[in-house]
Specification:
By secondary structure, the chain is an alpha+beta fold. The protein is built from 11 helices and 4 strands, in the order E-H-H-E-E-E-H-H-H-H-H-H-H-H-H. Helices cover 62% and strands 10% of the residues. A hairpin with a 3-residue loop joins strand 2 and strand 3. Helix 6 packs antiparallel against helix 7 (182-197). It starts with a strand and ends in a 6-residue tail after the last helix.
């Protein structure tokens, strides 16, 4: 049995017309790491990986943990085995990469691409920068302002939430680019957004100041980790489900800390 570790600075996989066991194992390990880090559930990861391996007459066994993925590829009825351990990447969720990698597995299963083309397409997908950050900034701000309206906020509250969300999310993008710890980023961004949103009440701008503060930090709520944790639990991936749940709870606690400090600084009553 051979083992290999795939990490961020691993060399590019050399694709061949018919993949060797080692090539397939290395490719699937890196593929698993990327799709999991991009927000995939465990069951989706397993299905995609096994779908690709089955096309080439190979089988895969997976052990998925919060920080690593242990993957074993076998062929010829288990006579040949290759094992890889892939580290989970510390990167933001990306629906675009997640969907593209899932589509790639179906393209391989439908014989639209061979192994060489699949490797090249995989490199192209993970190299994409995703949606323009300014577009994301605008859409997140609009979405949060819409939440404010959904909960009964007036037009002034919506405008305040839009601006406070834009400021907080812009800082979040800047801190992420400088690789600041995400937990500290959440504290800072929730603090900034809550301080700015408090202007609605302090200056008597609208009739729903409480909603301005309450909805100004909703963009930081870790909805995807909570949902993935529940899905993994249903699929009996209990370790992964617990890890994702703990991560979501920590982020929620950081959000609350920043919000409370912002309200205390602006002398906004919490009770």
């Amino acid at each position: 049995m051979t083992s290999a570790t795939i990490c961020n600075d691993a060399p590019s996989i050399t694709p061949g017309h018919t993949p060797a066991l080692e090539e397939m194992g290395a490719f699937l390990a890196e593929y698993s790491s990327w799709i999991f880090s991009s927000g995939s559930t465990c069951i989706r990861l397993e299905k995609n990986v096994r779908r690709i391996a089955a096309v080439f007459g190979m089988s895969v066994e997976l052990s998925i943990f919060p920080r690593h993925i242990h993957l074993t590829v076998s062929s010829d009825g288990g006579r040949h085995v290759f094992t890889s351990i892939a580290a989970i990447l510390d990167r933001p969720v990306s629906f675009a990469i997640n969907a593209s990698l899932s589509r790639l597995s179906w393209d391989v299963a439908d014989h639209k691409v061979g192994f060489s083309q699949a490797c090249a397409e995989f490199r192209r997908i993970i190299a994409t920068s995703g949606t323009d950050k300014w577009v994301v900034l605008l859409l997140v701000s609009l979405a949060n302002a819409s939440f404010c309206r959904l909960f009964g906020g007036d037009s002034v509250a919506m405008a305040v939430v839009f601006l406070s969300t834009m400021a907080g999310y812009l800082v979040k993008q800047m801190l992420s680019e400088h690789h600041v710890d995400f937990r500290l980023t959440v504290v800072i961004c929730s603090f900034i957004s809550s301080v700015l949103a408090a202007a609605d009440g302090l200056f008597g701008l609208g009739s729903t100041p409480a909603l301005s503060i309450g909805t100004s930090v909703l963009y930081l709520v870790p909805g995807i980790p909570y949902l993935n944790s529940f899905c993994d639990m249903l699929d009996r991936h209990y370790i992964c489900a617990f890890g994702r749940l703990m991560n979501a709870l920590v982020i929620t606690a950081c959000l609350s800390v920043g919000l409370c400090f912002g309200m205390l600084m602006m002398d906004v009553g919490m009770f």
